Automatic annotation (TrEMBL):
<comment type="similarity">
    <text>Belongs to the DEAD box helicase family.</text>
</comment>
<dbReference type="GO" id="GO:0003676">
    <property type="term" value="F:nucleic acid binding"/>
</dbReference>
<keyword id="KW-0347">Helicase</keyword>
<dbReference type="GO" id="GO:0042255">
    <property type="term" value="P:ribosome assembly"/>
</dbReference>
<dbReference type="InterPro" id="IPR001650">
    <property type="entry name" value="Helicase_C-like"/>
</dbReference>
<feature type="domain" description="Helicase ATP-binding">
    <location>
        <begin position="32"/>
        <end position="205"/>
    </location>
</feature>
<dbReference type="GO" id="GO:0009266">
    <property type="term" value="P:response to temperature stimulus"/>
</dbReference>
<dbReference type="Pfam" id="PF00270">
    <property type="entry name" value="DEAD"/>
</dbReference>
<feature type="short sequence motif" description="Q motif">
    <location>
        <begin position="1"/>
        <end position="29"/>
    </location>
</feature>
<feature type="domain" description="Helicase C-terminal">
    <location>
        <begin position="232"/>
        <end position="377"/>
    </location>
</feature>
<dbReference type="GO" id="GO:0016787">
    <property type="term" value="F:hydrolase activity"/>
</dbReference>
<feature type="compositionally biased region" description="Basic and acidic residues">
    <location>
        <begin position="389"/>
        <end position="409"/>
    </location>
</feature>
<dbReference type="InterPro" id="IPR027417">
    <property type="entry name" value="P-loop_NTPase"/>
</dbReference>
<keyword id="KW-0963">Cytoplasm</keyword>
<dbReference type="InterPro" id="IPR011545">
    <property type="entry name" value="DEAD/DEAH_box_helicase_dom"/>
</dbReference>
<dbReference type="InterPro" id="IPR014014">
    <property type="entry name" value="RNA_helicase_DEAD_Q_motif"/>
</dbReference>
<dbReference type="InterPro" id="IPR000629">
    <property type="entry name" value="RNA-helicase_DEAD-box_CS"/>
</dbReference>
Length: 429
């Protein structure tokens, strides 16, 4: 099957040809015709399968077919993070380069006025994070009453991050008569309930053979190591293997900063990216990483979804995630769109239970071999990460709460106050 056979406009096919895409991916081949036909859609696809093009191309086609640009948004695409919003916005601009359609991206962490100015000039496609979109709606700087197509991208991640109440508020601002597209990497009970309330007689597309499974092109391995020796081992591996581009995941923001500083001292250009960084700092770090100016990008799970780094060869789990499914999303940053990638985990003694939980989810064993000179101690002392306020070694993998306090909008629970109360984050996602 070719893109020519999907029924897309010639000007979209010209843009696709410029991107040097070959044949449509399975999610594109199945989803695009259903969306062009006007159906609501529930789509399940792993990261790196081309899902963004699967909804952006037919959305642009439908808007272009319906006439000239309008002042108010006709398509609304909701994403959980700023990075994903920016990248979807880039794809909208790239695919719509030959169309007279206007788009805008709105998210928190940056000033509102430039966004207001762009909205006032007129927008056909609006890409937004829920919190900042509601800020604009409250200030009446955006009118959602003309939305014809609503897209929820990474819907499971939005629920994980506590956006369900924001999503419900947004649904009250858009017309009841519209086309709804819901894309999710996993199908939890919460996703099913959301889909049941949102979608009308939807078509269903699921391209993954097994839910939550990583792309098969990712080679997975692990090294056992004492926790305190992890930074030295990582630096050793980067030098020994000659990794010129490696994405490293930590659990905490402070830990990401410390590790980036450590790698820099070891002669490895590194930068940290997490929710406490300003949007300009995060954008700059990601851009320098993509351009090869930064060799190691150290990230919290803010980057587990949404980062689109072409041909990223290596992902390292410096620390295993507490939730097994997050491992899948982390390693999904490599091996994207059929490319070959590798994912390595550094596993301390107190993380062996986490590794077992990941292996249960994957239904496979991850080979673990020690590195000469970094073999773990036979009887390691009790290990606890001073950067994490939670005790390590949790072996259950229940989903995070999806109601109640929203938590850190960029992925992670809010810090606990004395007495057990949780600090609520400021608005402005």
């Amino acid at each position: 099957m070719s893109f020519d056979s999907l029924g897309l406009r010639a000007d979209l096919l010209r843009a696709v040809a410029t991107q040097r895409y070959g044949r449509p991916t399975p999610i594109q081949a199945q989803a695009i015709p259903e969306i062009l036909a006007g159906h609501d859609l529930l789509a399940g696809a792993q990261t790196g399968t081309g899902k963004t093009a699967a909804f952006v191309l037919p959305v642009l086609h439908r808007l272009a077919e319906q006439g000239h640009p309008q002042r108010h948004p006709r398509a609304l695409i909701l994403t959980p993070t700023r990075e994903l919003a920016a990248q979807v916005g880039e794809r909208v601009a790239a695919y719509g380069i030959h169309l007279p359609l206007r788009s805008a991206i709105v998210f928190g962490g940056v000033g509102m006025q430039p966004q207001v100015d762009k909205l006032q000039r007129g927008v056909d496609v609006l890409i937004a994070t829920p919190g900042r979109l509601l800020d604009h709606a409250t200030r009446r700087t955006v009118d959602l009453s003309r939305v014809e197509i609503l897209v929820l991208d990474e819907a499971d991640r939005m629920l994980d991050m506590g956006f369900i109440h924001d999503i419900k508020r947004i649904l009250r601002l858009v017309p009841e008569r519209r086309q709804n597209l819901l894309f999710s990497a996993t199908y939890s009970d919460e996703i099913r309930r959301l889909a049941d309330g949102l979608l009308k007689h939807p078509k269903t597309v699921e391209v993954a053979a097994r839910r939550n499974m990583p792309i098969e092109a990712v080679a997975q391995s692990a090294h056992p190591v004492d926790r305190q020796r992890k930074p030295d081992l990582l630096a050793h591996l980067i030098h020994r293997e000659g990794w010129e581009q490696v994405l490293v995941f930590t659990r905490t923001k402070h830990g990401a900063n410390k590790l980036a500083e450590k790698l820099t001292r070891d002669g490895i250009t590194a930068a940290a990216i997490h929710g406490n960084k300003s949007q300009s700092a995060r954008t700059r770090a990601l851009d320098e990483f993509k351009r090869g100016l930064v060799r190691a990008l150290v990230a919290t799970d803010i980057a587990a979804r949404g980062l689109d780094i072409a041909n990223l060869p290596q992902v390292v789990n410096f620390e295993l995630p507490n939730v097994a499914e997050d491992y899948v999303h982390r390693i999904g940053r490599t091996g994207r769109a059929g490319a070959v990638g590798a994912a390595l985990s550094l596993v301390s003694h107190d993380e062996k239970g986490l590794l077992k939980g990941i292996e249960r989810l994957l239904r496979r064993e991850i080979p673990m071999t020690p590195v000469v000179g970094f073999e773990p101690s036979a009887n390691p002392p009790a290990e606890r990460d001073e950067d994490d306020e939670r005790v390590r070694g949790r072996t259950d993998f229940a989903p995070r709460p999806r109601s109640g306090p929203r938590g850190d909008r960029m992925g992670g629970a809010p810090a606990a106050r004395p007495g057990g109360r949780r600090a609520m984050p400021a608005r402005g996602r």
